[in-house]
Amino acid sequence: MKILLIGNPNVGKSVIFSRLTGARVIASNYPGTTVELSRGFMDFSDIKAEVIDVPGTYSLRPSNKTEEVAVKLIEEADIIINVIDSTNLERNLYLTFELIRNTDKPLLVVLNMWDETKHKGIDIDLEKFGSILSIPAVATCALTGEGIKKLVSRIKEARTSVFKNRTEPIWCEIGDIVNKVQKLSHRHHTFLDVLEDLSIHPPFSYFIAICVIVASFWLIRFLGEGLINYLFHPFFVKIYTPLISKLNYFFQPGSFIHTILVGRLVEGNIDYGVSFGLLTTGIYVPFAAVLPYIFSFYLVLSLLEDWGYLPRLAILGDRLFHKLGLHGYAIVPMVLGLGCNVPGALATRLFEERREKFIAATLMAIAVPCMAQTAMIINVLGPYGGGYVSIVFLTLFLIWYSLGRLMNVFTKGRSPEILMEIPPYRRPHLRSIFKKLWVRIVWFLKEAIPMVLLGILIVNILFFFKIIDVLAVFFYPLMNKLWGLPKEAIGVLVVGFLRKDIAVGMLRPLELSVRQLIVGTTILAVYFPCVATFMVLLKELGIKDMLKSLLIMVSTAGAVGLVLNYFLEIAGI
Amino acid sequence: MIDLIRLKKGKVAKVVEIEGGSSCQQRLNNLGIRQGVLISKISASETRGPIIVKAGHTQIALGRGMASKIIVEEPS
Questions:
Q1: I need a surface site. Which of A95, A227, A344, A406 has the fewest CB within 10 A?
Q2: Does A428 touch chain B (CB under 8 A)?
Q3: Of B27, B42, B65, which has the smallest distance from its Cβ to A200's Cβ?
Q4: CATH match of A2-184 with 3.40.50.700
């Protein structure tokens, strides 16, 4: 038994999916949050029914890859739940009518965001609507859970509509129904309406954008650092270190086991920055150095997403992105990439053209460091001064911009213009913010911890058995002559394939100069995606474009390391 | 009759024609912009950047190329 949730983008399908199945999925207030299928189960008249959350689509004639997926799935469905945005009845009914006419599946219509109709002066006669279409219609407010029980109880009533075999043009049918069931009344402007207006009208729009961006970065840093300094670091020093130090009694320092588990001791003590044992640095980096920043980043991102600000930022950024062969919506993969490159790469599915996907994915993989990496750059370089951290990010931004301009000129094909629905602002719902945060943190821990530990294991094996010296012989000219890095830094690049955060952390024990740290962290960001991102990019771009993209990354890394090293030397850093 | 770019900010007009290919028409249609509907222009910079209109209860941002293909008529 398969139940399909289908509807326009940003009508709340994922929230309804979560409510029906209890599964935790990411839901936001912008079109295109869901790019992959989510499957879950619910009890349905004594059997387990599979519920599938489908990426949003405006019509059954798909215009990008996510919409294609949605349309293909319809054949498999036993029941279709068509989710519509009650405040956009007319437009949403287009897909409803396509479903009625082009499929034989039993149908049920959910009018979601029912609570918003009141504020907007929209009055829909639900019963009349259902009886005209002759299919069950349920009103819900999925965010609060209102109407979900009713929805569950009525799923079994789903059926085909009397409109199935009529031939009048769809828009005439829709106009007719809307006239019969919907009444509009005047309403007063709310604070959110005024804010909506201001955020798209220059010069206020730019002022708001700058405030939002600055406030976001400040909040991420403030929360991240606060959590590290007052919670996570003290916890490790006061509680975890004494515990783990007991291992010194069981294993001889310097032995293989001790090296793997605890690592190098500094004057007999554990130093989480340098020790590099599985139980020391391997636990400290993901939990104490990175997790606080992941938490603060996703908290801020979730607020922006649910408020509905991202599409406004897309409009403001449209002109900038045009110069890079993209359009404003590319802000979505870039911002998601700042958290983790994997969802960033997945978001490029929403582009129609191969060229756009290629440019957006390559730029993101090269010049958008994930939060884990950023946290470690701050961890390693921060103690020398914030200015040095800024050099790394400024360099990455310049790479992003200039590479984008070059790719715009040299990549074949055309880049379409922006065409995007702008959702209304919505008051972020605290419970859903924290649910979403939880999903993302669990996902991070699952992804990060095994890879960080594997990375540390590999480093220790490389160093313990002196394999690193063999590698170093080959790469010495590249590392040293080109980038001014010591030959051991090759180990950093090896581990960077697995995880960037731990790789950045590996620069610490090498006792590098500030210049070497700046060059090293920048190269690490640019030279190659981590394995998780690599796999997604390969799937999204295909082998040919992936190879091109990799070639760009490797050569950019080579050139940037060289140039950066040269200029920093001149600047006396 | 003028194209959407030349329509003044804040004005409401009726879509008379959408020039351009069927896929362009289809995508605009999906968002509720089609022949015969009233749309209002909310915002646009004079020279560059996307144009924002409202069709039904939906706000839509669209590129200038597309906007120039949408021919509208202000009610007299």
A1: A406
A2: no
A3: B42
A4: no
